[in-house]
Design a protein that fits this description.
43% of the residues lie in helices and 0% in strands. It is mostly helical and 143 residues long. The radius of gyration is 26 Å and the shape is elongated.
C-alpha cells in the first residue's frame, strides 16, 4: 500500500492547441497520455466577436455616457441581457447607475462641451423618467 504522503504530487499539462507556435496546423494526434477516467474535452469555439471600438481608439466621454445608459436600460428591463438573452429587471442596480450619472453631471458642471452636456442631460432625464414610471406604475394603474 502506497502512502499518499510519499507519492509525488503534481499535475500534467497536455497541449491541445490546434496550431503550433509558428502558426502551422498540427497533425491530429491522439490523446494517449490522458487519464482514462477523464472525458475528452469538447470542441470549444471562441465566443462571437462583438462590435467594439478598436483598442487604439480612446474612449470618449459621450461613449462612456452611452455605456452607462445602456447598463441602466439593461437593469430597467428595457433591453435583454446579452449574456443570458433574457430581460431581467433590477431596479436597485438601475437606480445606482442613474445616481452615478447624476454625480457625473454635478462633478462635471462647467467642464463639458455643449454636445456632451446636452447628451448627459437627455440621458439622465430619460432614465429618471423610465425609473419613476416603473416604480410608480402599478399605483397609477389602480387609480
Amino acid at each position: 500500500m502506497v502512502d499518499e504522503k510519499d507519492s509525488p504530487r503534481g499535475f500534467r499539462v497536455t497541449d491541445r492547441r490546434r496550431f503550433s507556435e509558428e502558426g502551422e496546423a498540427r497533425e491530429d494526434e491522439g490523446v494517449s497520455d490522458a487519464e482514462p477516467e477523464s472525458a475528452p474535452a469538447p470542441d470549444l469555439q471562441p465566443p462571437p466577436q462583438r462590435a467594439a471600438p478598436a483598442p487604439e481608439e480612446p474612449v470618449s466621454f459621450s461613449s462612456f455616457l452611452l455605456g452607462l445608459s445602456t447598463q441602466a436600460l439593461l437593469h430597467l428591463g428595457e433591453i435583454e441581457d446579452p449574456a443570458s438573452g433574457r430581460v431581467e429587471r433590477d431596479l436597485g442596480a438601475a437606480k445606482h447607475v442613474i445616481d452615478i450619472l447624476g454625480i457625473l453631471k454635478e462633478k462635471t458642471r462647467g467642464n463639458l462641451e455643449q454636445p456632451e452636456e446636452q447628451l448627459l442631460e437627455a440621458v439622465l432625464y430619460d432614465l429618471r423618467m423610465r425609473y419613476v414610471e416603473l416604480v410608480r406604475g402599478p399605483a397609477r394603474e389602480g387609480a
